[in-house]
Amino acid sequence: MLPWKLAVRYFRSRPSSWLAVAAVALCTFIVVVVLTVMNGLVSDFKEKNHLAVGDCILTTDSLVGFPDDPNWLALLESQPFIEAVSPAVFGVGLITQTGADWNIAVQFLGIDPVRHSAATGFGRSLHYRKNQPHLAFVPSYAPNEPGCVVGIDLAGISRTSQGTYLHPLQPVPIRLILSSFPLTPRGAMARGGTDLVNSKTYYLADDSHTGIPQIDGSMIYLPLEEARLLAGMDSPFPRISSIHIRFKPSVGLQEGVEQVRKLWTEYLDSRRNHPYFNLLEAVRVQNWLENRRSRIAAVEKEQTMLIFLFLMLGIITVFIVFVIFYMLVGHKSKDIGILQSIGMSKIKIAQVFLHFAALIGFCGTLLGAAGGCLFLVYINPIENWLFERFDFQLWDRTIYAIGQIPNQIQPVFLLNVGLAAVAACLAGALIPAVQAARKETVEVLRVSQV
Amino acid sequence: MKTIIEAKNIHKSYPMGKQTLHVLKGISLKVQTGSFTAIVGASGSGKSTLLHILGALDKPDNGSVEFEGKNISNFSAAQLNRYRNQSVGFVFQFYHLLNELNVLENTLLPAMITNGPTGYLKKKKELQEAAAALLERFGLGGRLRHRPYELSGGERQRVAIARALMNKPALLLADEPTGNLDSKTGSGILDVLKELNRGGQTIIMVTHDLRIAQMAGEIVHLEDGRIVETSKKS
Lengths: 450, 234
What we know:
The structure holds two protein chains of two kinds. Chain A has helices spanning 2-13, 15-53, 70-77, 113-119, 122-125, 213-216, 224-231, 253-270, 277-281, 288-291, 293-331, 333-341, 346-377, 379-390, 411-438, 441-449; strands spanning 56-59, 66-67, 82-97, 104-111, 147-151, 175-180, 198-208, 219-223, 239-240, 242-247, 284-287. Chain A is of the alpha+beta class. Chain A has two domains: 2-46 and 296-449, no CATH class; 61-282, no CATH class. In chain A, strands 3-4-8-5-7-6 form a six-stranded mixed β-barrel. A two-stranded antiparallel sheet of chain A has the order 2-9. In chain A, a hairpin with a 6-residue loop joins β3 and β4 (104-111). In chain A, α12 crosses α16 (441-449). By secondary structure, chain B is α/β, with parallel strands linked by helices. Chain B has a domain at 3-99 and 170-232: Rossmann fold (3-Layer(aba) Sandwich), CATH 3.40.50.300. In chain B, 37% of the residues lie in helices and 30% in strands. Chain B contains six helices and ten strands; from the N terminus they run βββαββαβααβαβαββ. Chain B has helices at 47-54, 77-87, 103-137, 153-165, 183-198, 210-213, and strands spanning 3-16, 19-32, 36-41, 62-67, 70-71, 88-91, 171-175, 202-207, 218-223, 226-232. In chain B, the strands form two sheets. Chain B has a six-stranded mixed beta sheet, with helices on both faces. The longest helix of chain B is centred in the middle third of the chain and has 35 residues, at 103-137. The interface between A and B is medium-sized, with 26 and 33 residues.
């Protein structure tokens, strides 16, 4: 009762306490804003990668792929924990336009668009055929011609300075010639001597926007069988590069992956006599995070660095609180002596200062978090306004694949930041509070009399 | 008459640079219940140190203090806090009030400590009435919500006396209670102390002023850390 009463009175009467509140509020504000944006960017990036890969993937590093076994795919599709399965053929090649003297190195992915949309976010990434994957490879301006889907940045769709893609009403009628180098299962050039390069012409049917620059800037999607021909994976037996799997919503990621691993191990055991068993052996069963680890790790590393920097900021706050309380205990020596002289225990005296620190932490957190939330709610309009007035953008949308600045406020995160701020204040006030409690009554009263 | 507090052969030294200052050199003193004792001596004679030791604000190097027959040197920290809170009341020369609290709250401080949060909330009204009555008795009825810095020196000292008496301690210890006041205001404070003593309150007062000491029933003269004379009014 008394420690709280005194803490509240000290808090109200000391200007330095408002300085400490301001320091805590500022720190909380920065942490809430920056980490919310950073966490949003990381989650967004992860989600985009998740959509691109599916929940689970069986893949190999080899460009020659591994044997495509319809029985294995059927086995996977019959599993009660699996929602969808999509085999894919991956290859690299060169793309050019009829009559043009340029070419660009690209990657291509052969898919069944319906199956692939069921297993990944492919259908949602389309623009003209959004959620109509069965029409993905049908050019609207030439329905009987072979079509392809091109990564949005490769398609050359222009962007506004705020990052919005400016699509024409219909896909631009472009004929693209894709050339690839077919490989045998052993990795040698297929059809050597006569036909070293496979080339095929496609009409641009749509573009795909996954939000992952590496994919959007270099990927061309083709029908599965055509990609197989281009990559030479049609002979001497059909091959694929990966199998994308989506689990049923009730199935946990790791649980599903473990079950697929078990099935794959059993399948592998039954295929030991296959002439290209080595290709099957090279297949890895990964969840989407493991598969995209190299890309995601870089972003997560930045996030960790940022958290570390904020830890430093937290230490500075602890130090500010420490300095303020150190001075405060010096100024309040007389009060400490008086309280001791009327029988207040040392613990209760320490509590006065710790309660005071908790009040500072609470008020600072409240102000900082409220300010942070308010700022986050208006962060996109503020950025738009800054861009219109001063041509300033946090991220250049013509370079970065970011639409809106993420501003999803997480209540649990806010609670954690608040608790950390109060804990930082208590940590900063702990030594001065102990010093206050250990003061000798007589010394304190004698000095204050002087 | 019953002895309320007894100091036996008290020694106290303080380090002063490389030397040791021997402030009290074997003080023995008995104070009777209901008495008014003045400890008088020149500055540095050790009178405040003796008062602090009697009130358990300081510890003797040697010797013991017995309060109502119990040796306070053997008290635990909690017992010492209880002793300072309930058995003795302190009045200091410089009042020592908390500026953040008003007059009523300053007076209530010892009761808040005694009762703890729940006890205080239960008895809040009763305790506030008791504190207000005490302040009324000292002529501060209209000043309950004022802050210490809004009061005169005499008023502040009366608040300090009210605070010291809030828990009805058996012993009131006053360290130069008029030392910071003009003679007229000081005399008013002495009247308050005299009236309290007439009501049965045991008081030990430290002063350097022999004229002030004359109003006490017993005068203990301290010189260079020793009691040189004890005189009683008949």
